[in-house]
Amino acid sequence: PLGCAKALQLTLAVIKPDAVAHPLIMKALHQKILEHKFIIVKSKDLVWQRQDSERFYAEHEGRFFYQRLVEFMASGPMRAYILAREDAISYWRKLMGPTKVYRARYTSPNTIRAQFGLTDTRNTTHGSDSVESAQREITFFFPEFHAQEWMERLEPSFR
Ligand code: RTP
Ligand code: MG
């Protein structure tokens, strides 16, 4: 019924504060998610405390952009999605494009960051970069969500 022959994978996608602040960008991103046949498993709007930001980006502590990154991510509302799709993790990252906005504009002008990113830090979206980080990040944003249970509710051919 879902029209998906291969196994579904979950990823965590976030629309960052720079994009949430702009209704037309929000609309374009939501549309892109649907156009590319992601299933929206869960979504929520939230605002981080600075401590949430520091905890989420702990791996970047000490990097030159860390302070502005954690400040930016706690500067306004975000929208988080759990997305399901065949190859969801790499597919979403491909749609986002390179981290650095100006590189994105030169090398992959059709990507989200090329089209909507403001700076290398205010770059519109986040996406998990591996199965392990997807699990960690899904739990970070949606502690009540149980991936296993969700998968088990699907017909076997979709798992
Ligand atoms: P993300 O984790 O947000 O999906 O992005 P990513 O893997 O492509 O990039 P990563 O290296 O993990 O960096 C995390 C976020 O830090 C901000 N950043 N700013 N030079 C800079 O100013 C700079 N470099 C990275 C970005 O918001 C990046 O997404
Ligand atoms: Mg990353």
UniProtKB/TrEMBL annotation:
Q: Has the keyword Transmembrane helix been applied to this entry?
A: no
Keyword annotations for this protein? ATP-binding, Kinase, Magnesium, Metal-binding, Nucleotide metabolism, Nucleotide-binding, Transferase
The UniProt catalytic activity note for this protein reads:
a 2'-deoxyribonucleoside 5'-diphosphate + ATP = a 2'-deoxyribonucleoside 5'-triphosphate + ADP
> Which Gene Ontology BP annotations are present?
CTP biosynthetic process; GTP biosynthetic process; negative regulation of cell growth; negative regulation of mitotic nuclear division; UTP biosynthetic process
Classification via Pfam families: NDK (PF00334)
Which residue positions are annotated as catalytic? 126 (pros-phosphohistidine intermediate)
Q: Which parts of the sequence bind ATP?
A: 16, 65, 93, 99, 113, 123
Per the UniProt entry, the Enzyme Commission number(s) are 2.7.4.6
Alphabetical list of InterPro entries matching this protein = NDK-like_dom, NDK-like_dom_sf, NDPk6, Nucleoside_diP_kinase, Nucleoside_diP_kinase_AS
Q: At the top level of its lineage, which domain of life is listed?
A: Eukaryota
Annotated CDD domains? NDPk6
What cofactor is this protein dependent on? Answer: Mg(2+)
Q: Which GO terms describe its molecular function?
A: ATP binding; metal ion binding; nucleoside diphosphate kinase activity
**Any GO CC annotation of this UniProt entry:** mitochondrion
- The residue ranges of the Nucleoside diphosphate kinase-like domain are 8-149
Which protein family is it in? Belongs to the NDK family.
Write the protein's name: Nucleoside diphosphate kinase
